[in-house]
């Protein structure tokens, strides 16, 4: 008996590609994708990004950003940085994220974070000129 199975793949224009979750250039495309995460969280939708900024002195500091639409968890892992005085992971669990612009930067801020009280945390910034990470 011969059975033939047809598999149909549907291309979803709105679906995220795996290349859309790892940001390392911090150009306008990456800024747009990071802003999309901010908007999705505000709209109660989940999202995930991995940010890998360029090396400045030591090694990589990798940022894992996960949102379930209600809470955002931002983890910074500097274990690959040989120059860092303290290796490990910092984890921030917060209720909101926002982006604001200064003259020179796009600044991403976490609010309503566990163990931070009323403090806002400027967690990540991108230099506007040449869109380089800072």
The total number of structural domains is 1
Strand content: 35-45%
Mean pLDDT: 82
Structural class: mainly beta
- In N-to-C order, the SSE pattern is EHEEEEEE
Keywords for this structure?
134 residues, seven-stranded mixed beta sheet, 7 strands, DUF4362 domain-containing protein, mainly beta
Structural write-up:
With 134 residues, this protein is mainly β. 11% of the residues lie in helices and 36% in strands. The protein has a 7-stranded mixed beta sheet with strand order 1-2-3-4-5-6-7, covered by helices on one side. Strand 3 and strand 4 form a beta hairpin. The N and C termini lie far apart (63 Å). This is DUF4362 domain-containing protein. It comes from Paenibacillus sp. SYP-B3998.
Short description:
This protein is mostly beta strands.
What is the topology?
Blueprint: E1 22-23, H1 28-42, E2 47-51, E3 62-67, E4 72-77, E5 89-101, E6 105-113, E7 121-127
Parallel strand pairs: 1-2
Antiparallel strand pairs: 2-3, 3-4, 4-5, 5-6, 6-7
């Amino acid at each position: 008996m011969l059975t033939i199975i047809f598999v149909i793949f549907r291309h979803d224009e709105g679906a995220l590609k795996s290349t859309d979750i790892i940001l390392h250039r911090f150009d306008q495309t990456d800024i747009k994708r990071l802003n999309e995460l901010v908007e999705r969280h505000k709209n109660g939708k989940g999202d995930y990004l991995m940010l890998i900024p360029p090396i400045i002195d030591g090694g990589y500091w990798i940022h894992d950003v996960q949102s379930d639409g209600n809470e955002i968890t931002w983890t910074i892992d500097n274990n690959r940085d040989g120059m860092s005085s303290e290796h490990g992971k910092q984890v921030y669990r917060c209720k909101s994220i926002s982006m604001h612009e200064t003259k020179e930067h796009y600044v991403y801020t976490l609010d309503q974070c566990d163990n931070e009280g009323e403090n806002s945390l400027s967690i990540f910034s991108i230099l506007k000129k040449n869109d380089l990470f800072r």
